[in-house]
Amino acid sequence: MKICCIGAGYVGGPTMAMIAHKCEDHTVTVVDINEARIDAWNSVELPVYEPGLDEIVQANRGKNLFFSTDVDSAIREADMIFMSVNTPTKTYGVGAGRAADLRYIEKCARKIAEVCEGDKIVVEKSTLPVRTAESIKRILESNAEGRKFQILSNPEFLAEGTAIQDLQNPDRVLIGGDQTPEGKAAIQILVDVYAAWVPEERILTTNLWSSELSKLTANAFLAQRISSINAISALCEATEANVDEVAHAIGTDSRIGPKFLKSSVGFGGSCFQKDILNLVYLCEHFGLPDVAAYWNSVIEMNDYQKHRFARKVVSTLFNTVSDKKIAVLGFAFKKDTNDTRESAAIYICKDLLEEQANLSIYDPKVPEAQMLRDLELGEKDDSITVCGDAYEATKDAHAVLVLTEWDEFKELDYKKIYDAMHLPAFLFDGRNVLDLEALREIGFEASGIGKG
Ligand code: NAD
Ligand code: UGA
């Protein structure tokens, strides 16, 4: 089979690389309108950093895995077309700030209608509002001219930083489609692709709307757990309870489970906030304001946690960080990725810049230009310095903030860092990954999240 994927981003690239890797009989072409991105996929420096990704791309690129800007030809030749384009929060017009911006997905549908010649299976890989398949179907069928289209929903559940592991060994693959004989046949074709490496009992099939809604619901539930434990972290700080101990104690209840209970500076990433906002908007659209308010509180709590952290830094540093050097360790939204979209670090840095702090930032994978873009600063702004390592960033600092849980931050020589800082030397572990007792023995005024 010939497979085409429109969108060579964090999802399209790794997912298609895995399909090509596991299904050598299929040819997979990933296309994008962004030429620089396609060039990077064809180079040694891939545009997405993911442990294990280089190896599988190198093993298959040029054999049955291709990256190209020739969108039309790839669509024309494919039997199955994945749409894996971005679906950001709308910034204009009706629903601005909440609804999903579906212009890219609609452009894909129209492009497919325009250029393809025979029958096609079109797969929604992007995360979409429930019932989007209906619009895609309308666009394709209005322009069908005898061609037949089957729309499937196959949302992606990979997390960044563990994308390859998640794709290799998914908890489940979800495929939704029409419950007609033709729809079921299309579902089976996609089931067969995944069955090359995923046990069949982990391939779930549903109707289209359940599949679309399950993706938004999964992200909302995951984010809700983080907001719940972060809410408790504030109470821990007021009561001398320890949030890690509370999380462990509740997580051993098999009904609650231990995962996704790590208190932090707040969740980031391109999807949790956008998908919950989308869910909130949908609930309002369908006349369910109470349901909308319930899910919106997950985002409100996340905003509270990010600002609470910045406020705590300022109040601890004697209520002023003006002209003080504050070292920021970690800028990515989580470890093992170069992605900074909606990273909590952006909000915390902005709050501190507002207080006139001088920031020296180090992240092992995020380039300086990206940080400047995220902080909306020009190249020559002297309120931030981007450093090549943690020691340079922390030298002469009044405080160190750990904002991403990169493993290397656990291995640093904190005595060396302490010796080069102003006293009292403050350290705020925004990820609860450091040994606060050991840091206090060195002399740091160290605090974590949710630790009284
Ligand atoms: P991304 O921004 O990294 O990539 C999207 C790509 O689509 C871009 O390179 C863009 O140039 C391309 N594109 C847009 N319109 C196009 C068009 N008309 N023709 C060709 N290319 C076009 O986005 P992403 O992170 O890969 O996310 C894609 C979708 O997957 C989103 O709906 C997202 O919610 C969902 N998702 C993302 C993740 C994740 O971890 N990032 C996980 C699960 C699901
Ligand atoms: C998340 C989901 O985990 C994926 O299943 C989903 O496919 C994806 O969103 C998506 O739709 O885009 P991702 O955002 O890549 O994946 O990463 P997560 O591991 O979920 O982390 C999200 C944020 O929550 C990070 O900032 C992370 O640091 C934070 N987090 C996570 C916590 O603060 N505490 C936790 O216990 C877990």
Radius of gyration: 24 Å
CATH superfamily of the largest domain: NAD(P)-binding Rossmann-like Domain
Determine the strand fraction and express it as a percent band: 5-15%
Question: What ligands does this structure carry?
Answer: nicotinamide-adenine-dinucleotide, uridine-5'-diphosphate-glucuronic acid
Total DSSP E strands = 14
Mean pLDDT: 97
Q: Please, how many helices? A: 17
Low-confidence parts? none
Please tell me the CATH architecture of the largest domain by its name: 3-Layer(aba) Sandwich
Query: Could you say which structural class the secondary elements and strand pairing correspond to?
Result: alpha/beta
Distance N to C terminus: 58 Å
Number of domains: 2
Please list the strands of the largest sheet in the order they lie side by side: 3-2-1-4-5-6-7-8
Largest sheet: 8 strands, mixed
Shape: globular
- How is the CATH topology of the largest domain named? Rossmann fold
Helix content: 40-55%
User: Which class of the largest domain in CATH terms?
Assistant: Alpha Beta
Organism: Coraliomargarita sinensis
Catalytic activity: UDP-alpha-D-glucose + 2 NAD(+) + H2O = UDP-alpha-D-glucuronate + 2 NADH + 3 H(+)
Binding site for NAD(+): 7-12, 32, 37, 85-89, 126-127, 160, 271-274, 341
Family: Belongs to the UDP-glucose/GDP-mannose dehydrogenase family.
